[in-house]
Amino acid sequence: MKISILSKIAFLFISAVSIFTYSQRIGDSKLVLGKTYTVNELKAINGFIRCASTENERELQAKYPDRMSDAEFEAWLAPLIENSKANKSQNGGIITIPVVVHVIHSGQAYGVAPNITDTQVQSQITVMNNDFRKLAGTTGFNSNPVGADVMIQFALAKVDPNGNPTNGIDRVNLCKAFWTTDEVNTTVKPQTIWDPTQYMNMWSVQLGGASANILGYAQFPSNSGLAGLNTSGGLANTDGVVANYATFGSSDYNDGSFILSAPYDKGRTMTHEVGHFLGLRHIWGDDDAADPSGLVCATDYCNDTPPAHKANGGCVVPIASCTAGLFEMVENYMDYTNDTCMNIFTLDQKARMTAVMNNSPRRLELKTSTKDIAIPLFANDAELKAEKNCSSVTACGGTASISFPFSIYNRGTSALTSAIITYTINGGASQTYNWTGNLVQNRYAVFSITAPESSTVSAQITSVNGTSDARTSNNNAVASAGGFTTTPTASSTAVTFTLQPDFYGSETTWTLKNSSGTTLYSGGPYANGVANGNQIVSLPAIFTQTWNLTPDCYVFTINDSDGDGIQFYGYYNVKDAAGNILISEGATNFGTTQSKAFKVLVLGTNDTSGSVKNNIQIYPNPATDVLNITKVSNKARYEIHNAVGQIVKSGEINDNQVRIAELIKGSYIITIKDKDISQSIKFIKK
What we know:
The protein has 4 domains: 35-299 and 346-367, Collagenase (Catalytic Domain); 382-480, Immunoglobulin-like; 489-600; 617-685, Sandwich (Immunoglobulin-like). The chain has 9 helices and 35 strands. Strands 5, 6, 7, 8, 9 and 10 form a 6-stranded mixed β-sheet that branches. A 5-stranded mixed β-sheet has the order 18-28-25-20-21, with no helix packed on it. It has a 4-stranded antiparallel β-sheet with strand order 14-13-16-17, with no helix packed on it. The two termini are 55 Å apart. The relative contact order is 0.09. GO terms for molecular function: metal ion binding; metallopeptidase activity. Keywords: Disulfide bond, Hydrolase, Metal-binding, Metalloprotease, Protease, Signal, Zinc.
């Protein structure tokens, strides 16, 4: 990791742990949720954007015009709050909200950032309960006369959406080092969310790129109570709260495994965001247009939170900027002060949250969810999940076999030390994998089954600890290539390489080698970018080069001497003449080196006849169901590529035939490999 670019060009580094790799402020603007905001609009504190919930809500309102406006929401909520105050019997007792925490990572081991530990996750739930319940003897307690026990508490789910036991922590490998807020909303949330009427969804992620210095954000509640409004109250598949993994949890409970960074290491980012999730505004009112001078002093619709001129950061002495004698409540969870300086929700804030829980879609249903109530557990109970293979083809040579990863979880009360997993590849003969280890309850291990790159692997747990699994409903999983990228193939011999070095171009070098290991092209190092104080003036120049190649397999390798890959808007790609991207990478911390393979496979027009050198022939061409192949041995193999170079089928040639009935109509290339001969023939599927 580089030294902070506040001394070396304003790249953000916090204590010993960098929350946000290569966070960068260019001028005075920041791209958040698809829109550029000024730093003042985002209320940046010490270089951080404490919360992007207001910006998220603006984005949702712009994208979905029938979603409630702020004014409509407040008009709907106000009488419900008054009714709640007047009829305390409607408030009921303590509300327990079942929670699922989605820990998003890219294949890191348990406890390696951003794959935070179960204990760190649990510490976040503990802090939220301290804060929302104002528990005596904790940092969530206060003696302020308007300080409220909100009577809402949180519990990690004990039952998953399939009715199986869980610890409420859903670990998901999405094969990407970091995410922008836009990507979280469009990719992470829809792929991972559990039923938002039964679980409050929380995401621990590595925010990066244009979102690198955002600590968290939430989706506000809405309602369908006004005519003409969206009855869904907004997007159900994005509902929940998000925080950067290094703000998720509290160092007060650190068992030595936590990955947190002060001053945002006490869990108050999520306390703040859950406040938004339950309908609270920032204490300054979020009305940036209230006063062009920078004094906001707008309303948060809570009479017992004094007006605030703007967001307060650090641990500050309260001031009375808006109204003489009314000092700002800098200790309120809905301000931007440091985690250690927050300790209060007020009675009016409680009334808002209670009204939302009693009336708002998805919040109302959470009151009656029973997903936090445990189901019977057994001594021997293992769960099988399919994981993603995040690799790309990194070498040349034959039809690739890849690892299909699976995870095995111990959901039983006894230690899990062995399991027998039976599996099939593409529906073939049953095979056996014997797993051994030592897992305590709710811990997991990852193992892999090797199969050809285009395979589907179906696996099932058949035995645990030498006996039958007491629960069979969580024993099956199916893995396909998923995130794995098969070897891409160029449609031309001339391909174009484009490289945008990151700011430190002097660290970047690269090579292109053929299948024999001969270096054909190489480049770097490059000049560094230009800076002016804390601002980047320009990145290094973009490098473009045409590579004239012959049919073969090639390996591109890029190196970073500092060991942090391509960062901050750096990227590279290789395209063929048709514009197809063969290999590429955006800003990613791949470490010291990264290799990716691609093929060049170009045929002359006479190849459509079905005859090529070495006398290998195919017929008929065009074909409907079967390609007949002559003059090959019984050990010959084949690959069929579609028009964009993707492998759509591969395997051994049996009885001099390859079945193609399942292919869609179009043009294909079949590559036949027999001993030291490799021939490619174009054919048409009718």
